[in-house]
């Protein structure tokens, strides 16, 4: 077997998106790369899980939390689990228990059922039959779930898509466009107009408001050419500047809360920051579908990491997952790593998970929830975003963002949906998330309701999808005279017949860590620490961050993804071909090989 | 037979058994004893005729990520067939075939695991007989026990049976029922290489 190198230009710890982009970029530029992860999976904090892996992750977070309370220490330096805390699990009650369970012989299925049972034992006070039946039903489709710890989408025009195209990774990834964005207003989620058409057709916006909005958006599209017109507001709040366009409060909310990719909205942004953010959003409209965002399929984060890691491997990078890291030391100007094998490296790039000295780390906490449901939040809408501005549900302090992904995002089985909730942590944020869940989802299986549906549907009593379609048709018959867009509005105003059921809802706190100051960053010129990715919707900032780190490491490289090697090789080949017949060449090569081995 | 004309084939097996070499022999008719550290193989494509039908096979290499069991799920996704390779002179590489087959079935989770088109290749048969550790009989017995997987003894170096093995896997993959998508989805967005990255904004 090929001897494995023990010394590398770069040792990279962690396979998060940023580390993976760097790994790929370095390998493409002839640097030797050893890429290591302490977990069994790719993606670091951007990973995604199958259903069984998700249950295991929850159990591990709980165990780790308890351990931390007892302040026992382990000798593995991987701190992946340390950024998740206070996990609360709620499982739907009253789920139908099947009369006779089919006998299961498949060993993978048996293993999964065991995980479900173990999960209930650890997280619930007792193993209730209905809950076990529910978990077993979900775990049947285990591998159709891709549950993401940091769900992300990408602007259709921006550095992330540019990078994918330049690195030629289109073959490894698939996307589908995000369908709709909604904003919570007067106790309902209202559609946020995404295109000029939407604005013109919107019934929620009055004609005069439309003109003002268009004026503002047109300005933003060209704002960099008209610097003088906002100069005096540059460093003042964006919210102040927007007021000068005399938009009504709802539209101001749309701009500050819904049409941007910032973690917390643009409430506290300066005009300069706000304009840049709105511009990024508008620039991406109209490329693929009606929204500026495209959603990576199969859970996103870890897929993206895998694409970049594969491209690194193709260029010689060495991959080792599931590594227990015993020690990592810097001596004699080299990093010494002791895991399954021993290695040395000239440079170290490390995610914060593997940083031994965490004293220079600044933490921002977010409260998050992951919910698996039987229905989408809005009828017939799959990939979508829901924004709850501050002070709209029970005086929520901060903006709350929901992301929904279903079968169309290839991260759920049919008629299941994952809803992610995220808000910046405060002393009340957990309660706020609980309120939102309570308001939007059912936590009990209402049997009387199911019977009603059964009667209506007759024989077809299993197919929920069919129920929905039937309801839809009823609606259409009722307002036959209306034209298309009016019908849409009608649908929106209509009270949901029944809320989605939360099969399982998991609330937790996640710490997003970053280095405190630049000084420490430059302490050792051979050490690069990668800050955690923020939970904002898009991928632009982390991509820009990774690329700027690359430029700092290798200012001499102008084009990261130029292809000089391949071209050279082709040239070589052509020359060779010109000289000899191909077959001759092979025999020659073989002979040469034999000579060498003798 | 399905209407597919592009097949994704993946080659699995322990590091060093000759997966990359088999691919290169099949597609480029080349063999080299030298390991190329800089550029590995991503995937290679080749057009083949199977019963008067022109098929493109896209063969994905493990790119070395198999060495420490670090192939992610994305690598396996959408495979139409799978080639399991071992080295007839290396017992361990034969014993791990079971794990590779399991790993494939778990990660790729094909709809019909029992009839999924596998093929097993015992490679490096050009080396002297005295080095051989696994008899043809033993390998064939294993293949039989796993649902009659076709078995070929190959040499990437001497180009023995390589063409035949790939031809067989293409044929078997085509026999496999195509999974017809049940829903009419909006098409997924594809980023092909021809697409130019967006130019940075003008005037700035
Ligand atoms: C609410 C809103 C208002 C916007 N207003 C402007 C603006 O005033 N000026 C600007 O440059 N950018 C504006 N944008 C950004 C703009 O829509 C896209 O960024 C840009 O048009 C995309 O270019 P395109 O050629 O790919 O798509 P476009 O050709 O612009 O098409 C995008 C969508 O808008 C529709 N559309 C286009 N023009 C009109 C029109 N005149 N009337 C009705 N529908 C139309 C199209 O049918 C399509 O559905 C706005 C964006 C939003 C969300
Ligand atoms: N003698 C002989 N050597 C081979 C054969 N196939 C591959 N090799 C050698 O085995 C080593 C590993 O091959 P490689 O294709 O890199 O294996 P991989 O790790 O499975 O991709 C290389 O040195 C090859 O030259 C073969 O059929 N016969
Ligand atoms: Mg190889």
Structural overview:
The complex is a heterodimer of chains A (598) and B (204). Chain A is an alpha+beta fold. Among the domains of chain A are: 104 residues, Guanine Nucleotide Dissociation Inhibitor, domain 1; 34 residues. Chain A contains 19 helices and 20 strands. An eight-stranded mixed β-sheet of chain A has the order 4-19-15-18-17-16-8-9, with helices on both faces. In chain A, helix 1 packs parallel to helix 11 and helix 3 packs across helix 4. The radius of gyration of chain A is 27 Å and the shape is globular. In chain A, 41% of the residues are buried. Chain B is α/β, with parallel strands linked by helices. Chain B has a single domain, classed as 3-Layer(aba) Sandwich (Rossmann fold), CATH 3.40.50. In chain B, strand 2 and strand 3 form a beta hairpin. The longest helix of chain B is centred in the last third of the chain and has 14 residues. Chain B is globular and about 60 Å long. The C terminus of chain B is likely disordered. The interface between A and B is large, with 69 and 47 residues. The complex binds flavin-adenine dinucleotide (FAD), guanosine-5'-diphosphate and magnesium ion. The site of guanosine-5'-diphosphate (GDP) has 15 residues of chain B, from helix 1. Chain A: One of its GO terms (cellular component) is Rab-protein geranylgeranyltransferase complex. Chain A: Substrate-binding subunit of the Rab geranylgeranyltransferase (GGTase) complex. Binds unprenylated Rab proteins.
